[in-house]
Design brief:
The structure is a single chain. With 416 residues, this protein is of the alpha+beta class. The protein has 2 domains: 2-173 and 293-396, no CATH class; 198-287, no CATH class. The chain contains 14 helices and 9 strands. The protein has a 9-stranded mixed sheet, sandwiched between helices. Helix 9 (293-306) crosses helix 10. The protein is globular.
Length: 416
């Protein structure tokens, strides 16, 4: 049952709050779940005042605005939300490991996971510039995130000022993992570390990068190109559908042997170049990189459905808390997505990241009531909510999933 996962999560979350001050009108676990419910509500006037009213209405207790603001600004609440997020991520990871679709493509490629790493910036009020400095704005928060690109589940995250470069924040490298990154992570040392860690990387190639052609593997090119810098290569017309070179990526006196794969872009009338150390079909490289779009959809889900980009406070702790709450919502949506695939459709992708996020928002009262009540909610009521969710999920599934070829299906055909 979907409800069983949410009821179990209540026990795990509350187990961490045994030292809660019993004098508080709203206990810590209920405060956090109420905050989740309040931030999921769509509101034109998203503010701490509207959050307090929505949360108090949900938990059935009333606290003053000043007391609410003070509690929001504590490091204690921030740490407890971090623990809540860790608990939710653990449940999503468990469901991900139980999902055959999450591992099928990875196993065919000979990797343990297909992981996307990226970041997203949120503008903050100017008064927070001392804590979260921005690049294009005075104050900004940057969320660094890695997700499993098949299931959508969060693998790792970090928060920093907007001025922190992407390459300075990267998850611990897992042996066998395939890391797909954009040009913000173009860094010789990073690629070298990934390879030394027994993992794989896939990235677009920066136009000014120091990549030397060592061998022509595929494409109508002469071996006279050997020794030529890729940035100096001028191709005015398509020589082949897919081009592959063996190349050497150099930095100072260090060299890294890589594969260079090019795909002709019809609109731009030029090749797009990718580099990887993965031993996979060259035709699969473009579709693999296209999977990276899923992490962009993760950010879009948080911003469009969960108010992640609307942080109405000047408190640094409250800012971090609200950012983490946005990620909590997203992880809840991946749990719903993975559970629904077990009950309705073995193809997880038919319930997209955005659709599952919108469902969490639309049914936030029922879902967070389950989370708040846990096993105090009667089994019959939990089953009623579960049946309602299962019935509704069908309407959120993509009706065209059987009539179109998405990236995952296309990739499966290429590597099978």
């Amino acid at each position: 049952m979907i409800s069983e996962s949410f009821r179990l999560l209540k026990s795990k979350i509350h187990a961490a709050f045994s030292t809660t001050d019993r004098r508080a009108k709203i206990q810590d676990g209920d405060f956090i779940i109420g905050l989740l419910k309040a931030t999921a509500d769509s509101s034109e006037s998203f503010s701490l005042a509207s959050l307090r009213l929505s949360m108090c209405s949900f938990v059935g207790e009333t606290i003053g605005q000043s007391a609410f603001n003070e509690r929001m600004g504590t490091a204690t609440l921030k740490n407890q939300v971090q623990h809540t997020l860790k608990t939710l991520m653990g449940e999503a990871f468990r469901l991900q490991n139980a999902s055959a679709s999450s591992l099928d493509i990875a196993q065919k490629l000979g990797v343990s996971r297909i992981i996307g790493v990226d970041s997203s910036i949120v503008s903050l009020w100017h008064g927070l510039a001392k804590y979260f400095s921005g690049t294009f704005t005075t104050a900004a928060l940057k969320l660094h995130l890695s997700t499993d690109l098949i299931s959508g589940s969060v693998q790792w995250l970090d928060l920093s000022s907007g001025t922190v470069h992407d390459s300075q924040k990267f998850p611990d490298i897992t042996c066998g993992g395939l890391y797909i990154v954009d040009l913000g992570y173009w860094d010789f040392g990073l690629f070298q570390s990934i390879e030394k860690g027994g993992a794989f990387f896939l990235s677009r190639i920066k136009s000014n990068s120091n990549v030397t052609i060592a061998k022509v593997v595929a494409g109508n090119f002469s071996n006279s190109l050997i020794g030529t810098k890729l940035k100096d290569l001028v191709v005015k017309r398509r020589r082949s559908e897919v081009v592959e070179f063996l190349g050497q990526l150099s930095h100072k006196k260090q060299v890294l042997n890589v594969r260079v794969v090019g795909f002709w872009n019809i609109k731009e009338r030029r090749y797009r170049w990718y580099t990887t150390n993965l031993n996979a079909s060259r035709k699969a490289i473009s579709d693999l990189y296209r999977l990276r779009w899923q992490i962009e959809l993760s950010f879009k889900s948080m911003k469009s459905a969960f108010n992640f980009d609307r942080i109405p406070t000047l408190s640094p702790n409250a800012t971090t808390t609200l950012a983490l709450i946005g990620v909590c919502h997203y992880v809840m949506s991946t749990i719903l997505r993975l559970k629904s695939s077990q009950k309705i459709d073995s193809r997880t992708r038919s319930l997209s990241l955005l659709r599952s996020a919108n469902m969490i928002r639309a049914f936030s009262y029922d879902i967070y009531s389950l989370l708040q009540s846990g096993y105090r909610m009667s089994a019959s009521l939990a089953k009623k909510i579960d049946n309602m969710l299962l019935k509704t999920i069908r309407s959120y599934h993509d009706p065209n999933v059987n009539n179109r070829m998405n990236t995952e299906n296309r990739l499966g055909n290429v590597i099978s």
